């Protein structure tokens, strides 16, 4: 990443390296929104078609291959979709926010969900909630929107860890025989 920033910095023309790190969600153009919608449709279609195979691939690639699934092709498809998402979002919201929005909602959903489908839905909902609430707070207090969104997501993640610990302690007290 450092070499990329170095080459971009020495390239003639205006460039703000901070926009690639932190982005500015408030400067998203109409074309960017259309690209995001198109990419969403592609990703939802691929996941809808290959859902079971993708879940199997993510949890146990060797078993999936032994079941006759072409794991190499499926793995490359998954990597390409992930790369497309990251490249498009880096342009819009910056590297730091992309990493936060790819990991924090999924981590929170993982702490709260009982299955992979529920985790996917919860992560999507959490991500949308973080963005909307972060934009509202940043507008109200005149703060950088990306930073506020990430701070709200981080606070919610820490809260979910606390809830997860309470849930585990409650389970330990009742024990598996109490069911």
TrEMBL record:
Annotated transmembrane regions: 6-27, 34-54, 74-107, 119-141, 147-165
Pfam family, one: ABC-3
SUPFAM superfamilies attached to this UniProt entry: ABC transporter involved in vitamin B12 uptake, BtuC
GO process terms (BP): response to zinc ion; transmembrane transport
Subcellular locations according to the entry: Cell membrane; Membrane
Coiled coil: none
Bilayer topology annotation: Multi-pass membrane protein
Main location: membrane
Gene3D superfamilies xref list: ABC transporter involved in vitamin B12 uptake, BtuC
Alphabetical keyword list: Membrane, Transmembrane, Transmembrane helix, Transport
GO CC entries: ATP-binding cassette (ABC) transporter complex
Family: Belongs to the ABC-3 integral membrane protein family.
Protein name, per record: ABC 3 transport family protein
Organism this protein belongs to: Candidatus Electrothrix communis
């Amino acid at each position: 990443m450092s070499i990329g920033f170095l080459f971009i910095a020495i390239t003639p023309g205006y460039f703000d390296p901070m926009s690639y790190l932190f982005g500015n969600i408030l400067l998203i153009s109409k074309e960017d929104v259309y690209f995001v919608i198109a990419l969403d449709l592609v990703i939802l279609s691929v996941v809808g078609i290959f859902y079971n195979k993708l879940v199997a691939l993510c949890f146990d690639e060797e078993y999936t291959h032994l079941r006759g699934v072409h794991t190499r092709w499926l793995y490359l498809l998954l990597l390409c979709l992930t790369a497309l998402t990251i490249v498009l979002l880096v342009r819009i919201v910056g590297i730091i926010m992309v990493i936060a929005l790819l990991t924090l909602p999924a981590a929170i959903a993982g702490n709260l969900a009982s299955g992979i489908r529920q985790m996917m839905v919860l992560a999507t909902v959490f991500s949308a909630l973080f963005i909307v609430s972060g934009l509202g707070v940043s507008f109200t207090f005149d703060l950088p929107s990306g930073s506020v969104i990430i701070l709200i997501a981080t606070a919610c993640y820490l809260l979910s860890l606390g809830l997860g610990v309470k849930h585990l302690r409650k389970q330990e007290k009742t024990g598996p025989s109490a069911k």
